[in-house]
């Protein structure tokens, strides 16, 4: 009897236990044979940028490339991400990849993943956890630096276009409250803005990274403030809504307009507006992170060390340099 029990435990060595079919909803073995099983919890599908980010990971983690990818769209709700991560844990996937909708609230579920020996790869946005051994690596942009880039561009713009004693009124439209993209871009811009007492930040208000909310909020801001000189919009989708609102109210914008527009993401649709002089500057945030994710997983599979942080860099586009990238822009 004892021998049988010992044999059974050996047969279920840690490597093969993940591939067993059947019980508690685990991935059927015949589906995954020797593929690397990855559970991907994506925060939502709120923007053009997000769609490109999802596609980039799905294009890299394919069966042909040795992966079995499970995907869940959390529709901007943290509880949906936690549910998805828990289901990946119970399925004993090999890796969990997730883009956290907000920075906080992940300690418990990431501890559960750690207890199950499942490495967690954070993509795009950051998590704020007490113990950073709860995730293996973070792949994404430096949001603070993106915010500083916007501030530095505005400094240059003011040097060329603003009278010395003129005060500029700045409206900051923020992305999803509590997301590292919103926190970082606001912090970075504020770092520069607070060194200019002739920049008046009228308000920081959330457009939730969507076109609909961006338009709704901009219409109310145009009713509230008579003189908005600059809008800093933390993603292109909100910028599309802002432009609709400005057009509706007959307010000019862009290179020759009354309202200067600073945007983030630099998706193709927005870069076309930069080329037309409708958006003054677009701070790029690169969503094509799939290759980096696949490379990190392969390294982990081979028992090689990986960095704790992979910073994805981006450019800054104005009418002067946008034409060179427009043609081959993938997203
Ligand atoms: C930025 C990313 C943001 C994009 C938005 O890293 O998290 O989320 O700027 C997206 O378009 O919604
Ligand atoms: Zn003014």
Offer a few descriptive terms.
single chain; 331 residues; alpha/beta; 2 domains; six-stranded parallel β-sheet; six-stranded mixed β-sheet; elongated; binds beta-D-galactofuranose
The fourth-level CATH homologous superfamily of the largest domain is Response regulator
List each distinct ligand once: beta-D-galactofuranose, zinc ion
Can you tell me the CATH topology of the largest domain? Rossmann fold
As for the number of domains, it is 2
Mean of residue pLDDT values: 93
Main sheet characteristics: 6 strands, parallel
Number of strands: 12
Q: Which structural class matches the secondary elements?
A: alpha/beta
Distance between the termini: 61 Å
Tell me the helix content: 40-55%
What would you say the CATH architecture of the largest domain is? Answer: 3-Layer(aba) Sandwich
Could you please describe the fold and organization of this structure?
It is built from 13 helices and twelve strands. With 331 residues, the chain is of the alpha/beta class. It is elongated. The protein starts with a helix and ends in a 5-residue tail after the last helix. It binds beta-D-galactofuranose and zinc ion (ZN). Residues 169, 227, 229 line the site of zinc ion.
